Amino acid sequence: MSLSKISTRKEKKCPVFGSSFKLPHNVLPTYMDMMKHYNYIKENIKTETAKEPTVTEIAETVATDVKSLWQKASIPIVPHTRILKLIRCAHDEFRQLMKPYKGRKSESKYLLKLRTYGQKTREKLFDIAACKCCQGSCKCPKQNKIPPAERDFLEDQRKQD
After folding, report:
1. What is the pTM of this model?
2. Quick one: how far is CA 140 from the chain centroid?
3. How do residues 6-49 score in pLDDT, each as one tens digit?
4. How large is the C-alpha radius of gyration of the chain?
5. What are the boundaries of each domain within the chain?
């Protein structure tokens, strides 16, 4: 057994999202679920290759996983490049928030900002459905329409917000 594979430190825990984990398979992911999965993938790639993975590498894997979860729900989704852009934007917003963490982690105003961001990501569905129309008033092309059998499920997932 090589020494590089032995884990001697505590599990890394994000101050906003907590511990990382794989995406849940029974519900559509929230932004928090997606970011926890992002961190999980990042940690896995790091341990396998011993080098820092790029955002593009991680985003590709996360996009594929999120995409398969939405396809499993039989809901038409946006193109792969759009999913990558959404992941990248979420990651950039998180990184921007975490930039001053070391210097400001004891300030109550900054901690409130972290909690507010965490709450927002916990409640907001990572919505990659091709159709964002309200129920009954959809004017989307046929290939983007949500099947009637899945419409209630998606509305329920969106309302968990």
Report:
1. 0.86
2. 26
3. 554 555 788 899 889 899 888 899 999 999 999 999 999 998 88
4. 18
5. 22-159
